[in-house]
């Protein structure tokens, strides 16, 4: 899992990413999509927050894509297969539309 970043460092990273990514991170549409994905997998409210946080860290480039499923497994306290399905949903719903800006 990522070492804890200060709010200042996260803000710094946020300000360095492309504006399209900033909009995606802050978008209500993506927040709703994360909520729907969490609901689909019966995640409690606190775990929904963890899912949103980890997704944000991935979008900021703090979390490496290869670590996403492992981080979800740990943060959401779920099995790896479920974490992988959630990651697939996040990938399709959240990342696919902004993929070119993530590179």
- Give the oligomeric state: single chain
What gyration radius follows from the Cα positions, in whole Å?
13 Å
How would you sum up the global shape? globular
- Helix count equals 7
| Arithmetic mean of pLDDT | 89
Low-confidence stretches: none
CA-CA gap between termini = 21 Å
Largest sheet: none
- According to DSSP, the number of beta strands is 0
The helix-strand sequence is HHHHHHH
The helix content is over 70%
The assigned structural class equals: mainly alpha
Beta-strand residue fraction:
under 5%
What does this structure look like?
- With 103 residues, this protein is mainly alpha-helical.
- It is 74% helix and 0% strand.
- The chain has helices at 7-16, 19-26, 28-40, 45-60, 68-76, 80-95, 99-102.
- Helix 3 packs across helix 4, helix 3 (28-40) packs antiparallel against helix 6 (80-95) and helix 4 runs antiparallel to helix 5.
- The model has no long low-confidence stretch (mean pLDDT 89).
Looking at this protein, list some descriptive labels.
103 residues, mainly alpha, single chain
Secondary structure: elements and pairs:
Elements: H1 7-16, H2 19-26, H3 28-40, H4 45-60, H5 68-76, H6 80-95, H7 99-102
Helix pairs in contact: 3-4, 3-6, 4-5, 5-6
Summed up, what is this model?
This protein is 74% helix and 0% strand.
